Amino acid sequence: MIVTQKSPETAFLGRYRGWIPVLMAVVIVLMATHGAEASGPSHEIDAIRGELSPAPAASAVTPSRQVQVPATTTRPAYWAFVPTGDSSPRTILLALHGMGQVGDSLGGQLMPFAQERNWVIIAPTIEYGEWRDPERLALAEARVLPQVMDVVDHARRELGVATRERILVFGFSRGAHAAARLGLLYPNQVVAVAAASGSAYTLPTDTARNGAGRPITAPFPLGTGNIGKYFGKVVEPAAIARVQYWVGVGANDDRDADAPRAWDLALGKNRLERAARFANAMEQVGCVTRIFVSAGAGHELLPPAMDDGVRFLAAAVTIDSLREPKLGPIRSVASVANLKVSALTATTGLDLPPDSFTPPTAMLPLRSGAMVVPGSVVPKAVWSRLVARYTAQ
User: In this structure, what DSSP letter does residue 241 have?
Assistant: First the structure.
C-alpha cells in the first residue's frame, strides 16, 4: 500500500472542505455589501442590517395612449389621447374638425403640443349638417353643441385621469364656428378658444353694425338674439368676458364665394374680413383676444398658426389657474410689468407685430406652494388687461 503524505495546506483543506461553500457565500455577501455602500444605500442591505428604511414614493407616471370610443344613439364617436405624464390634474383640449373630416384628423395634429404640455385631447367625429343657411344651422347647433359637451363629460369618466374643470377648445373651419359658440354658451366651462379659418361666427351681441356702421338685428346664429329659443339660456356678457379667444385665418383665404352670404352685413364677405370683425367683436365685450393671419396660407391650418394658437391657449391656462378660489389673492402680479428681470422667455420664432412682447418673469403662487412663470408672447395691451383683471383689489 502506498501512502501519500499530505502537505499541511492539503490537510487543512481536507479538514474544512465542507466549510468552503459557506465561506464563499460569506465573501460574496461581504463584497455585495461593500459595493452597495460604495454606490449608495440599498433597501436590501438595510433589511440585512435590520434597518429597513421606507422606500421613496414612486412617481405616478402614466404611459401615453390613444382611445377610440364608438358612437351611441345620443353621443358622437370620439378619439382621445392621454399623454405620458404624472397624475396631477390635466387640462382637456377639445378638438373640433372641419366638414367631412373625423376627430383625429385635427386631434392627431395637436398630439405633439398636448404631449409637451400634459394635455388630454378629446376629438369627436361630428355630423354637423347644414351650415350655410342660418335657420338650419341654428337647429344643427342646438343638437351638436350639447352632444359635444356630453362627449367631454363621458371622456372624463372613462379615461381614468384627473382633469381640470375648465377646458380648451381648438376648432378648424366648421369646427371653428362650433368652438367659438361653446365659449359663448358654456363660459364657465371653457378657458379659451382657438378658432381657425371660420366663416359663420356668432357675434356675442344681439345686434351688429353693417359696413356703413348702421345697427342691425343679429338673431342666432348671426348673433345672440333669441338664442334662448334653441338652448334655453341667454348669453351673459360678464361671463363670456372670462373666455379668451384666438382667431386664425390664412392671408389668402379671401374668396367671397367660399363664405355664406347671410353673414355679409354683420361680418364681411369672406373669411379674412370675418376673422378680423369677429375678433374685434369679442374684444369689445371684454375678452382677451388675438388674431393671427398666416402669410401665404389659404383655407388651411399651417404649423406656424397651430403653434401660435396653442401658445395662446397655454397662456390662458396659466392665467386661469390663478383664478381658482383656493389660491387666495394674487398680489405679486400687480407690479409684474415693472419688474427688473434676469431672464425672459426663450425666443419663440414667431413673426410678431411691433406691439407684442414677452412679459417679464413673474413668480405667482399656486395652491401647492410651487411657482409658475407666465412667459407667453402677447400684445402689450392684452398683458395690461390681464394684470388688471387678475390682480387682487
Answer: T
Contacts of 206 (CB under 8 A, 6+ apart): 217, 218, 219, 223, 224, 225, 226
| Residue 294 β-bridge partners | 250
Buried b (16+ CB within 10 A) or exposed e, 213-251: eeeeebbbbbbbbebeebbeeebeeeebbbbbbbbbbbe
Please tell me the distance from the alpha carbon of residue 121 to that of residue 81, in angstroms, as a whole number.
5
Give pLDDT tens digits for 307-358. Answer: 999 999 999 998 887 664 443 333 333 233 322 222 222 222 333 344 444 4
User: pTM of the predicted model, to two decimals?
Assistant: 0.70
Closest CA to 145 of 109, 119, 110, 183: 183
Q: What is the pLDDT of residue 384?
A: 53
- Give Cβ neighbours of residue 209 (< 8 Å, ≥ 6 apart): 215, 216, 266
Domain range annotation of the chain: 27-52, 70-321, 327-390
Predicted confidence (pLDDT) per residue in 119-154, tens digit: 999 999 999 999 999 999 999 999 999 999 999 999
Main-chain phi, psi angles of 274, to 5 degrees = -70, -35
**Cis omega (within 30 of 0) for bond into 221:** yes
Judged against a pLDDT cut of 60, whether residue 58 lies above it is answered with: no
- Alpha carbons 261 and 265: distance in angstroms, whole number: 9
Residue among 353, 208, 184 at smallest CA distance from 280: 208
For 70-321, give the CATH class: alpha beta
